[in-house]
User: Fold this.
Amino acid sequence: MSSDTWLVAGLGNPGPGYAHNRHNVGQMVVDELAARIGGKFKTHSSRAQILEGRMGIGGPRIILAKPMTFMNLSGGPVANLAKFFGIDPDHVIAVHDEIDIPFDTVKLKRGGGEGGHNGLRDMSKALGTKDYLRVRVGVGRPPGRMDTADYVLKDFSKDEKKDLAFLVDTSADVVEELVHHGLDSAQRKFHVF
Assistant:
């Protein structure tokens, strides 16, 4: 497999009951990328839905993936897909919700800690490294004393929904920039200081 192949995993929980939760914003971004590429997701033996395509005409090959396990068990499907397609961890991108970033903000990084995110923790364990790329989609912190798990398993608020399509669209742009031009370029273009 070419080193020009990328695996983009949108983290979330399976099923329609979770589809619009904050925790599933990673899958929303992957759905947006799928709409841009064209085609339909198919079930893969790795316990994920995948869509294979190219990012732009003659662009890099991309495997979009939505693990069909619960968030805390995202690592197995992602690691199995990486192995199946011969993709090294430096070409794996996790797209996920991030409570430590304000809603409507997107940040990127390679490696580092998981910040209490169990989906990332499971990915790091399954891949055997933390050295993969992350597109961190800000969902903000829970209000007051609300439990973090309860917060991320709720749908976006009415006010947030007004800007959600823009956030998802921007996050998809970030993934495209990352794949085409690398981390430094994407950080320069999309990080607001």
